[in-house]
Amino acid sequence: MLTKGTSVFFQHPETGEIVRLKRCTAFNPGGSPRSQVETTDLEELDAMQYEAGLAQPGQGTMSINADPGEESHRLLQELAEGSATPTMNWYVGFSDGTPDIAPTITGSGESAEVTIPTTRTFYHCRAYVADFPFDFQLNANVTVSGSLQRSGRGTWHYKNGDSNGSGGGEE
């Protein structure tokens, strides 16, 4: 599958609305490898023994061609530099649907729910904006190589309604 037509969205931490991240050139939600639980006993002679522990969500990255007129860029920069850095829902829409297909909100306030369309594959995770540094280079676009800190597991929501996890709620 090609990336052409991929869209990145996040849920505004105050209003709950779905915001499209415009001018994004790369997005990596980061991994969530399992920790190691050491189970070796004293009689073991050959090698350490381990079992899989809890998942440890790592850092993700995003690259953006910065635009001070773009509301999504201003919001992410404010979140990265502010005193409160809320964990938000992030949604990546794959290229198996058109770019205008986005998650929607039904209800409002505490009862608001995110609906992920079944006409496009989406990846969902929760993360906060850890950093949003600008990069100024000669004869180039001003870019941002931002970082996200994941929280919890990520889930795929496959086109045509199959899913390996829950929607926009707690995971």
Overview of the molecule:
The protein has a single domain, classed as Pnp Oxidase, Chain A (Roll). The protein has one helix and twelve strands. It has one helix spanning 71-81, and strands at residues 7-11, 18-20, 24-28, 34-38, 50-55, 59-65, 88-93, 104-106, 113-115, 122-131, 134-135, 143-157. Strands 1, 2, 3, 6, 7, 10, 11 and 12 form an eight-stranded antiparallel sheet that branches. Strands 4-5 form a two-stranded antiparallel sheet. It has a two-stranded antiparallel sheet with strand order 8-9. Strand 11 and strand 12 form a beta hairpin.
Computed structural class: mainly beta
Helix content: under 10%
Name of the top-level CATH class: Mainly Beta
Describe the global form: globular
Q: Could you state the order of secondary-structure elements as H and E? A: EEEEEEHEEEEEE
- Low-confidence segments, ≥5 residues, pLDDT <50? 166-171
The radius of gyration is: 19 Å
Distance between the termini: 27 Å
CATH topology: Pnp Oxidase, Chain A
The total tally of domains equals 1
Per DSSP, what share of the residues sits in E-state strands of 2 or more residues? 35-45%
Number of beta strands: 12
CATH architecture field = Roll
**H/I helix tally:** 1
Main β-sheet description: 8 strands, antiparallel
Mean pLDDT over all positions: 91
